[in-house]
Design goal:
Number of helices: 5
CATH architecture: 3-Layer(aba) Sandwich
Number of strands: 14
Largest sheet: 6 strands, mixed
Order of helices and strands: EEEHHEHEEEEHEEEEHEE
Helix content: 10-25%
Number of domains: 1
Strand content: 25-35%
CATH topology: Rossmann fold
Oligomer: single chain
């Protein structure tokens, strides 16, 4: 599969890139015709910092942020993002912004323990994700934040196939427009399944497992 990998560079910053592999891939929520490899952005400190700088631009002078909730292995980017937002001269200048990852319980629900709930309760929350294909994870996150009385102020992702969710723009570095022909489909509507095209791999935020 790796022989099919192509690199795509951000139009805003050439120091940021992703890998894409065409094929037939199954996620928890959908089937997609490209695997979007975000490993380098999440593990390279230079690229993670560059990505954080780009994402911060949309909030610097407009959106107060108290806490960044990091999903799908984005905590390194979240720390750089908090630093970028807290620079003097921005609306969050000098603020100490919390960077937090929720725990997943046995029912795959997001929870916060007693010692971290103060970082969510009544706070202005920025949700940071690796990738968004259908928006279901966003909806699940919002349900969690409502339970803990957190207020969602922004949604950011490295890659997103959707432009908005729950009345908020999804602030993203890469969109499906960067990947010509990208499709995300429910498994019941998958054109590749109907054409009996074999699934190449099961994918999630950690990577892929070939079948």
């Amino acid at each position: 599969m790796e022989t099919r990998l192509a690199e795509i560079f951000s139009q805003e910053n050439r120091d940021i890139k992703i890998g894409v592999i065409p094929g037939h891939f199954a996620t928890n929520h959908s089937h997609v015709n490209y695997y979007v490899d975000l490993t380098s952005i999440k593990t390279s400190h230079k690229m993670a910092k560059a990505a954080a700088e780009e994402l911060a631009k949309r909030y610097l002078y407009t959106t107060p942020i108290d806490t960044i909730i990091c999903l799908e292995g984005t905590k390194t980017i979240g720390a750089f993002l908090a630093d970028a937002l807290a620079r003097h001269g921005s609306i969050n200048g000098g603020k100490d912004i919390w960077v937090l990852t929720p725990e997943m319980n046995a029912n795959n629900q997001m929870i916060f323990r007693d010692n971290t709930q103060k970082m969510v309760w009544g706070k202005s929350i920025l949700l940071l994700m690796s990738s968004v294909s259908t928006g279901k994870t966003i909806n699940r996150s919002i349900d969690c934040l409502r339970y803990y009385n957190g207020r969602l102020a922004g949604i950011s992702a490295l890659f997103s196939a959707i432009r908005e969710s729950n009345g908020l723009t999804v602030n993203t570095i890469f969109t499906k427009g960067d990947i010509p022909g990208y499709k995300s489909m429910l498994s019941t509507d998958c054109e590749m399944c109907k054409n009996k095209q074999k699934i190449d791999a099961i994918v999630n935020s950690y990577g892929y497992s070939r079948i």
